[in-house]
Amino acid sequence: MHPKLISIGSFYIPTYGVLVALGFLAGLWMTMRLARRTGVNPERAMRLAIYCAIAGVVGAKLLSFVLDFGYYSLHPSEMFSLSTLQAGGVFSGGLILAVFVAWYYTHKHKMRGLKTADAFAPGVALGHAIGRLGCFSAGCCFGVLCDKPWAVTFTNPFVHRMFDTPIYVPLHPTQLYEAFAEAVIFVVLLLQFRKAHKPGWAIGWYLVLYSVARFWIELYWAHEQALIGPFSATQWIALAMLGAGIWLVARARGEDRVTAPAAR
Predict the structure, then answer these.
(1) 8 A C-beta contact, residue 214 and residue 236
(2) Which of 34, 82, 106, 224 could be joined to 113 by an S-S link, Cβ 3.0–4.6 Å?
(3) Residue 262 lies in a domain
(4) Rounded to two decimals, what is the model's pTM?
């Protein structure tokens, strides 16, 4: 809960921005390691990581605008406000646009798409875990009221001014929920990555695990997304990601069965 890492007069370095940058660098480092191990061209993987990072930022903001269209249509100037620019946006929107960019790039350069995606999956989880710590420091992406022992209370007036975050009231630490979930996903994928697997296995499991976590965390997120049937738009996206992940995992397992030697 320290939105300003360094503050000198009116100038300050936001903790959020520093942690997001560190998350990107950590994720890139991990991706480069796994790319070399799996035979993916490291130079092209690095370029792809940069393009996907840009797409992730843009996609997260765009989906945030779409889901909160009612608010931004009444307050269009808020789209370019400092608080909006510093907020993280909706991660699933960034992930979707990054996937499209990755598909185009790998297709253009004749890279094996699923194999490349597998090399990226643990790094994405690691980078996102660190980035969510930035959200917690900034006070954005906060949760609803909480009566549990692990509730957090923001007290910094700057956080309230920037993101309208409630202060002096206990809230669900949704930022930490997601950071913890992504850290666990990273560890699980990294441990399993050492075993032989078919293309699509790692990215498939990432989508399965993250979508389940995000669907659950969404129940405690403080926002005013309109429900579409029984779920919010973000939850529907999570369900779609879950379906895609299950399909990829099943596809990879199916290839294992096809290529496995016959029992004797």
Answers:
(1) no
(2) 106
(3) no
(4) 0.83
**Helix-strand-coil split of the chain, %, nearest 5:** 70, 10, 25
Domain that holds residue 140: 4-257
Q: Write out the two tokens for 7.
A: 């503050």
Instruction: Decide: helix, strand or coil at residue 231.
Output: strand
- CB 174, CB 220: distance < 8 Å: yes
**Do residues 218 and 235 lie in contact, with contact meaning Cβ atoms separated by under 8 Å?**
yes
Tell me the per-residue pLDDT of 149-178, one tens digit each, with 9 for 90 and over.
999 999 999 888 888 899 999 999 999 999
Whole-angstrom distance, CA of residue 151 vs CA of residue 146: 6
Looking at per-residue confidence, does 215 or 111 come out higher? Answer: 215
Tell me the C-alpha distance between 191 and 211, whole Å: 20
CB 118 within 8 A of CB 75: no
How large is the greatest C-alpha to C-alpha distance in the chain, in angstroms? 76
In a domain, 263, yes or no: no
Give residue 123's region: left, alpha or beta (phi > 0; psi -120 to 50): alpha
Question: Residue 241 and residue 118: Cα distance in Å, rounded?
Answer: 16
What pLDDT sits at residue 259? 42
**Domain count across the chain:** 1
